[in-house]
Amino acid sequence: MTVRSAHSLTASRLSAGYGDTEILYELDLAVPPGRITAIVGANACGKSTLLRTMSRLLSPHRGHVLLDGKSIHRTPPRELARTLGLLPQSPIAPEGITVADLVSRGRHPHQGLFSRWTRKDDEAVDGALTATKTTELAERPVDELSGGQRQRVWIAMALAQQTEILLLDEPTTFLDISHQVEVLDLLTDLNHARGTTVVMVLHDLNLAARYADHLVAMAKGRVHVSGKPEDVLTEENVRQVFGLESRIVTDPTSGRPIMLPIGRHRMTTAQDFKEDRP
């Protein structure tokens, strides 16, 4: 039986931004422990800022981010890193570092001042490389990899950290559709096997609805709506959050909702072709 993470992560009346520019406004969010949460929304709505603030990379202007009821800014850094991991958007690797060395850095929070590298560390790194199908890249420099390969290596480092809460900012960036599905399947396996709480920012609404237990739609720095995918991914919410007309249908494979955008143009149907013929 899978043991779900018991750690709680919440934002309370959170306002944050960069310099004098505020991006988040009085935002409240409770992340369901042991579940997969996907955050969606239009560009510049504050999705990445929210993840950065909830991981302590960014200090809030007002409000609080609470881990187990305590401000993350009062949690010792190493203790926080053992509980909460972050894969930011477009991370930068040190020049010349190999894949194996980068993934091994995910074990740093588990290394005490005088502790040595252990078999458990080896197993965590090997497992992360295997899960992301990057084992054959282990000795290659990260800066020689393609964008998709590099993204999978960063995900491997996050997995090697073995935290109970994992935040990922657009983890499918640079990946083709088959690798996107592989990564999301991998995160789902991690959630099912270890009960890891996963919070990820995704651009693809349909993948978000298919893989998330909990969907959060943001608009203009606030949570517009959150809940089960079937309750969040509605035509009215898509209209309000994205300014897009759409139709929502049910995925025959997963039973989850699928959003079909309605643009100004549509494909010509066989009936249209018959009607247009002289």
TrEMBL record:
Keyword terms, alphabetized: ATP-binding, Cell membrane, Ion transport, Iron, Iron transport, Membrane, Nucleotide-binding, Transport
Domain of life: Bacteria
Principal location listed in the UniProt entry: membrane
Cellular localization per UniProt: Cell membrane
This protein's GO CC annotations: plasma membrane
Annotated membrane topology: Peripheral membrane protein
ABC transporter domain location: 9-245
InterPro entries: AAA+_ATPase, ABC_transporter-like_ATP-bd, ABC_transporter-like_CS, P-loop_NTPase, Siderophore_ABC-ATPase
Single GO BP term: iron ion transport
GO terms, molecular function: ATP binding; ATP hydrolysis activity
Protein family according to the UniProt entry: Belongs to the ABC transporter superfamily.
Full protein name: Iron complex transport system ATP-binding protein
Protein source organism: Xaviernesmea oryzae
